[in-house]
Amino acid sequence: MQRVPLTAARRRGLAALVELAADEPILLTRYGHPDAVIASAKWIDEDLRTLREAALTVLDGAADLVAQRNPRQTLEQVCERLGVDAAEVRRRAAQLAEE
Q1: Which residues pair with 27 in a beta bridge?
Q2: Most exposed among 1, 21, 75, 99, judged by the fewest C-beta atoms under 10 Å?
Q3: Would you say domain 2-39 falls under CATH 3.40.1620?
């Protein structure tokens, strides 16, 4: 995500920012702090589709547990089903444990 200060965004103009947002979302900053995001409709649609798919996967897993069809799964099985890297989950868990 490209970071653009609000002052620079004003100088570039809205049309230029929309053109930049076609490639990747733009994070507008004020005094170095995140303030707003400009994203193309394509990026929003892709993110919404990904969220819907993840939600359905979680619901399927919960339904399996309730139906006791799949009482236990390994981290690898869960990550594979969600399309998440198990090693990254372990790294993040280690980071959180240290905090």
Answers
A1: 3, 37
A2: 99
A3: yes
> Whole-model pTM above 0.85?
no
Sign of CA dihedral 56, 59, 64, 70: positive
**Checking phi first, is residue 17 left (phi over 0); if not, alpha (psi -120 to 50) or beta?**
alpha
Please, are residues 35 and 57 in contact by the beta-carbon 8 Å criterion? no
Structure token pair of residue 25: 């979302």
Token pair belonging to 73: 């799964």
- For 29, the enclosing helix (H) or strand (E) is strand 26-30
User: In which band, very low, low, confident or very high, does the pLDDT at 10 lie, cut at 50, 70 and 90?
Assistant: very high
Distance separating alpha carbons of residues 57 and 59, to the nearest angstrom: 5
Sole residue written with tokens 């619901």: 59
